[in-house]
Design brief:
The chain has 15 helices and 22 strands. The chain has an 8-stranded mixed β-sheet. Strands 1, 2, 3, 4, 7 and 8 form a 6-stranded mixed β-sheet that branches.
Length: 472
């Protein structure tokens, strides 16, 4: 019988907001050996919320009171007390992440909901979470093929390509079903700046205040749908389409199979025709017709499009079930400084270990830490699989040297390989009571990430690695 942790996931998207409660089972999977290995062995969804329209007070402002009401209502429906939440993630996605008060909303929700419910953002992270939540990761692993999941929401599309269960690429684009909005009189009330160049290039008569012809809207969604065929690797992406990428482009790798999730995906997998303006604007946007156009665009690729495990709920399930990791059980930590949030990662190059040049690691740590001007920082590296005691002593000396400029902050070390206890104890022995030390392993991070470390739950340290839009 393992230990249980309850997780909360909240996805505040361009169009919809959802809440999910899950239960993790944490077990020692290496119980017969001297050194235990702790992992999450099972995940059970306890409660899925209904799908709400994201509350906005203005076009550029999220309605905080409206979001809080949704969350409180779902706590009541689930019959779960806030104090029972061990971990969780609030993720503000798509165009909603660009709202004027998005950062404030994320932080306030995190503060209200508990010490270890954290704010997540960043288009690449959204892509990964949606890919896991949709089940594309499992499909790729089971079939030993490349599977790309397109999570098509209201404002953006987030894509993650898995190869035999390993993430190979992730990217995001300004493609979604709510980039054009209509009022009850069928008139256009909003056109996203992101797609105006497509409308102009196609010479379409789509303008604010006008009721466009069905064929005009369909030409636009057909052009948007072609982009998905190109992104799956079945055609070449043109410079014309490159304007839609958010942050960076894709790697151009061809997928064996494609899955679609997000609100628009409900129409990709539906068999109904969308043939008039009334059907197009059912939800006040172009989502239904975009899904229909995507379905038609892939008709020539028989067997390539397969159904995901989850569609519209993929991202919230990813946020609730796949944003959390647990550190190895051989860790060192001073519990009184936990939980600790939003700690930037300073990644140390593997070259120091490959060339046995560990004694020069301290200068690199010092240089990386100096960027953050006195705030808590975590040093992260993979390290050798089986370091010798002399290597550990040198690492400890270099880490202490690198953290020398942070007089009042703890030493936080994140090691991917399994030797954090030996390293952490060596650091503590050298420092005595001068500094607090956290040394955890089994967690993979990179520069640009932030890390949250929670209080121990049943002897396990829960960890969230975050790629953030918001800067702290």
């Amino acid at each position: 019988m393992g230990n249980e942790m309850v997780s909360l996931g909240i996805d505040i998207g361009t169009t919809t907001t959802q809440v999910i409660f899950s239960k993790f089972i944490v077990n020692n999977i290496n119980a017969s050996f001297f050194i235990p290995k702790v992992e999450i062995t099972d995940k059970v969804i306890l409660h899925k919320s209904q799908i709400y329209f994201t509350p906005l007070t203005l076009e550029d402002t999220i309605d905080f009171k409206g979001v809080i009401k949704i969350v409180k209502d779902e706590f009541n429906r689930a019959g779960i007390n806030k104090d029972s939440i061990s971990t969780g993630a609030v993720i503000i996605t798509g165009e909603t992440a660009r709202k004027d008060n998005a950062e404030i909303i994320a932080h306030e929700l995190s503060d209200i909901l508990g010490d270890f419910v954290v704010a997540l953002a960043g288009p690449d992270l959204e892509s990964i979470l949606a890919g896991f939540g949709a089940g594309a990761y499992e499909i790729s692993k089971n079939l030993k093929k490349r599977v790309v999941n397109f999570d098509v929401g209201g404002g953006t599309t987030n894509a993650c390509l898995f190869n035999c269960g390993e993430r190979e690429d992730c990217f995001a684009l300004d493609l979604g079903g709510r980039l054009i909005k209509f009022n009850g009189l069928k008139k256009v009330v909003y056109i996203s700046e992101k797609i105006k160049f497509i409308i102009n290039n196609l010479s379409l008569n789509i303008k604010i205040g006008y009721t466009p012809e069905f064929n005009e809207i369909k030409k636009l969604t057909d052009e948007m749908a072609k982009m998905f065929v190109r992104l799956a690797g079945f055609d070449e992406i043109s410079n014309y389409n490159n304007k839609l990428f958010i942050g960076h482009m894709n790697k151009g790798i061809k997928a064996d199979y494609i899955t679609f999730s997000g609100g628009v995906s409900e129409y990709v997998y539906d068999d109904k025709e969308v043939g008039n303006i009334e059907e197009v604007i059912k939800f006040g946007d172009i989502g239904p017709l975009l899904g229909y156009s995507i379905r038609k665009a892939f008709e020539g690729y028989t067997g390539k499009v397969i159904a995901p495990k989850e569609k519209i709920r993929a991202t919230v399930i990813g946020a609730g079930n796949h944003s959390i990791s647990v550190s190895g059980s051989t860790v060192i930590f001073d519990e009184e400084i936990l939980p600790i949030k939003n700690v930037p990662i300073v990644e140390i190059s593997s070259s120091y270990f490959e060339s046995d040049n560990i004694q020069n690691m301290g200068a690199s740590i010092l240089s990386g830490i100096s960027v953050y001007e006195g705030r808590p920082v975590a040093v992260a590296f993979t390290g050798p699989k089986n370091p010798s005691y002399s290597q550990i002593k040198i690492m400890a000396d270099e880490i202490i040297k690198g953290f020398g400029s942070l007089d009042n902050e703890p030493i936080i070390v994140v090691v991917e390989n399994d030797f954090s206890k030996a390293l952490g104890q060596t650091i503590k022995n050298k420092l005595g009571a001068k500094k607090k030390v956290i040394c955890i392993d089994g967690i993979s991070t990179s520069n640009g990430d932030y890390i949250d470390i929670g209080k121990p739950v049943a002897g396990v340290i829960p960890v969230v690695v975050k790629t953030l839009i918001f800067k702290f």
